[in-house]
Amino acid sequence: MEVIVQPTPPDAARMAATLVAKAIRRKPNLVLGLATGSTPLMLYGELIRMHREEGLDFHHVTTFNLDEYLGLPPNHPASYRRFMQENFFSHINLSPQRTFVPDGMTQDIHRHCHEYEDLIVSCGGIDIQILGIGSDGHIGFNEPTSSLASRTREKALTEQTRRDNARFFATLDEVPHNCLTMGIGTILASHQCLLLAFGPKKADVVAAAVEGPVTSMVPASALQFHADAKFIVDEPAAAKLKLRAYYDYVLAHNPG
Ligand code: GLP
């Protein structure tokens, strides 16, 4: 686990975008796992800027999103497909047929989830998985007590997550109760994970995920089992980390 503390969210987003851009230049057909929520927006903004100003080419890139609300059609204003379309996909030169988001309207959940897993494998696995973190420690929509070996499946959202995400809907009642999400096992199978977290509200959960015990009560703590997981956080989100001085030392002495 590598913890990188940056002064501000734009600094953190630029660092994450630089890592993604380098990976795409090294491997043009990169398989990129994507997240929604407000946290990755600046990263997407920076990648869009790199595409426009520096010719970063997404033509051969494949993307897999972590999750989707069950029961929302792709054009629903709060669907994650629409979120990705508006905030990222429509601004770069990805091939639409290589952008995958779980289908919240699927009539056969079990089969769809299996096919999603198979598709990831058939593309060679996810090279870099972008992650945010929920205030309850969830990654994707893997709520506390999710199996650490779980694969793409249906999950029920906690009331806390529904309330946190109500800002994207007209009313709390409109927030779906269920979703489809890659599992923690799916996320752990990616070659590299980049988790971004900003702001004081994430400080407790970042500390629990990085320095606490591995527990399904804090699903992001499962990343301690990942061989290449980076937490890129801003100062307020780093505020509760006990080994902060050590992380800064490692970063300062890391030739990469
Ligand atoms: C949602 C998404 C998560 C995301 C989380 C945090 O629940 N399913 O993938 O990490 O929101 O959202 P935010 O970045 O807005 O804090």
Give an overview of the whole structure.
With 256 residues, this protein is an alpha/beta fold. It has a single domain (2-252), classed as Rossmann fold (3-Layer(aba) Sandwich), CATH 3.40.50.1360. Helix content is 34%, strand content 16%. The chain has nine helices and ten strands. It has helices spanning 9-26, 41-54, 80-87, 109-122, 159-165, 184-188, 203-211, 235-238, 244-252; strands at 2-6, 31-34, 62-65, 67-69, 99-100, 128-131, 153-156, 178-181, 192-197, 229-234. The strands form two sheets. The protein has a seven-stranded parallel β-sheet, with helices on both faces. β9 (192-197), α7 (203-211) and β10 (229-234) form a beta-alpha-beta unit. The radius of gyration is 17 Å and the shape is globular. The mean pLDDT is 97. 2-amino-2-deoxy-6-O-phosphono-alpha-D-glucopyranose is lined by residues 35-39, 66-67, 132-134, 140-141, 161, 165.
Helix content: 25-40%
Largest sheet: 7 strands, parallel
Q: What's the architecture in CATH terms?
A: 3-Layer(aba) Sandwich
Mean pLDDT: 97
Strand percentage? 15-25%
Approximate shape: globular
Topology as H/E string? EHEHEEHEHEEHEHEHEHH
**Total tally of structural domains:** 1
Using the CA coordinates, give the radius of gyration: 17 Å
The bound ligands are: 2-amino-2-deoxy-6-O-phosphono-alpha-D-glucopyranose
Helices, by number, come to 9
Strand order of the largest sheet: 1-10-9-6-2-3-5
CATH class: Alpha Beta
Q: Low-confidence runs (pLDDT<50, min 5 residues)?
A: none
